[in-house]
Design a protein that fits this description.
Layout: H1 6-9, E1 18-20, E2 23-25, E3 31-35, H2 42-55, E4 59-61, H3 81-91, E5 96-99, H4 106-109, E6 115-118, H5 126-134, E7 139-142, H6 149-161, E8 167-171, H7 187-196, E9 201-203, H8 205-209, H9 215-225, E10 229-233, H10 251-277
Parallel strand pairs: 3-4, 3-10, 4-5, 5-6, 6-7, 7-8, 8-9, 9-10
Antiparallel strand pairs: 1-2
Helix pairs in contact: 2-3, 2-10, 5-6, 9-10
The chain binds phosphoenolpyruvate and manganese (II) ion.
Residues 37, 63, 67, 99, 119-121, 142, 172, 204, 207 line the site of phosphoenolpyruvate.
Length: 278
């Protein structure tokens, strides 16, 4: 009997690498994605895109349709947000990723974004997984807050079974008992995923912790530990973010994280070169 996620194990794949526009995941690099929780306006997107590009970030994120817990909170600009992220990304030669909440939104994604995010709340929304897969765009699949790794890999299997090989997995925190952090950042689980699958695995420390002070150290931990990248929420004026303000970092912090990721990777590469030479 095949395992419940034969394709997601990835041992049959010719390459581990997933491409989204010019961004590569799983090629041995560390792919840093930055952008706001919600796309708010043109000025915000322009300043974030410029900062992500000049820091050496690989990709721009932004939410158009926001899956908010309360229906009274900002729900995102909706369809009108897609041209805003598309234009900012194009101006700065960055590929972009946006979450789709419903199948009906997918026709708007083609030609506007380079990757579709399936968010934590929709990890097991099978019709949405299948429809997103059939667009042919690469999929950023987030782990549900109460999903096991097996369930995450089975969700990826639905995408792969549609003939879409381009799936990147994302650990974004699982539900715990302690409100001191928004979720429990399961770094061990993310590393265990890398033993279970060849698919690239990235970390979202923003939603995992809900606290901007913890974003930088966790991105550095992910880079040092050998994950394939990270996605972080960045805002030109974090306190004024229309959603997830407490976890948004500013543009300077994003630039420092990108530089320190390079330093961590160079230190580890130097260590390896030293070990080989010695
Ligand atoms: C997001 O990326 O803005 C988001 C809502 O993420 P998650 O699905 O992980 O909660
Ligand atoms: Mn968010």
């Amino acid at each position: 009997m095949p395992s419940s996620y034969t394709l997601a194990r990835g041992h049959l794949r010719k390459t581990r690498t997933v491409s989204a526009g010019s961004a590569r995941f799983g090629d041995g690099g560390f792919t840093l994605i930055g952008g706001p929780c919600s796309i708010e306006d043109e000025v915000q997107m322009e300043s974030v895109a410029a900062a992500v590009a000049s820091a050496g970030g690989a990709m721009l994120r932004g939410g158009a349709y926001k899956p908010r817990t309360s229906p009274y909170d900002f729900q995102g600009l909706g369809d009108a947000a897609l041209p805003l992220i598309a234009a900012a990304a194009r101006r700065h030669a960055l590929p972009s990723v946006v979450e789709a909440l419903a199948e009906t939104q997918l026709p708007l994604f083609a030609g506007c974004v380079d990757m579709i995010q399936i968010g934590a709340r929709n990890m097991q929304n099978v019709p949405l997984l299948r429809a997103a897969a059939r667009t042919g765009l690469p999929i950023l699949l987030k782990r549900g807050p109460a999903a096991t790794l097996d369930e995450l890999l089975c969700a990826a299997e639905y995408v792969l079974l549609e003939g879409n090989e381009n799936v990147v997995l994302c650990e974004r925190g699982i539900r715990g008992f302690d409100p001191a952090t928004r979720n429990v950042c399961d770094l061990g689980g993310a590393l265990r995923l890398k033993e279970l699958t060849q698919l690239p695995v990235i970390l979202d420390p923003s939603h995992a912790t809900g606290r901007r002070t913890l974003v930088e150290p966790l991105v550095l931990a992910a880079a040092a530990a050998g994950l394939d990248g990270a996605i972080v929420e960045v805002h030109p004026d974090p306190e004024r973010s229309k959603s997830d303000a407490a976890q948004a970092i500013d543009l300077a912090t994003f630039a420092r994280i990108a530089a320190r990721v390079r330093a961590v990777r160079a230190a580890l590469a130097g260590e390896e070169a030293y070990a080989v030479a010695g």
